[in-house]
Amino acid sequence: LPAATLERRIESLSHEWGLASHLASRCDRLGRGVQTRIDIATALLPARRILLLDEPLDTLTPAEASEVTTRLEQLRGAVTVIVATGGHAPIAGSDTVLALDRGRLVSGR
How is the chain split among helix, strand and coil, in percent rounded to 5? Predict the structure, then answer.
């Protein structure tokens, strides 16, 4: 991305994902919930239309997971979000839920 576009995207996403106060912080000193939000916001910098997340809620507290889920739901209509959950309950508000077993579709369509 051009520098000016990148700066605008960082500014916008840092506010949308509640990260503005962490921009000058080292990632390894932040909590897992903040790190996850940074990971997702970073993936969204180039204005992707599809976002594939692998176990994004696994290491989060229930409150952090709820916050990330709410922010993902706000992407509805602008970004297709695909989440792999490894057998855990699907994310609330999902439009489509597919269950795979060893690569084969076992439920959903």
Answer: 40, 15, 45
Within a 10 A sphere around the Cβ of 54, how many other Cβ atoms? Answer: 10
Cα–Cα distances in Å, from 100 out to 55, 68, 93, 103?
15, 24, 19, 6
In angstroms, the CA 76 to CA 92 distance is 13
31 vs 95, residue with greater confidence: 31
Does this model's pTM top 0.85? My answer is: no
- Estimate to the nearest angstrom the gap between the alpha carbon of 87 and the chain centroid: 18
Contact 63, 94 (CB under 8 A): no
pLDDT tens track for 39-87: 999 999 998 899 999 888 888 888 988 888 888 888 888 999 888 877 6
Q: How many angstroms separate the CA atoms of 67 and 60, rounded?
A: 10
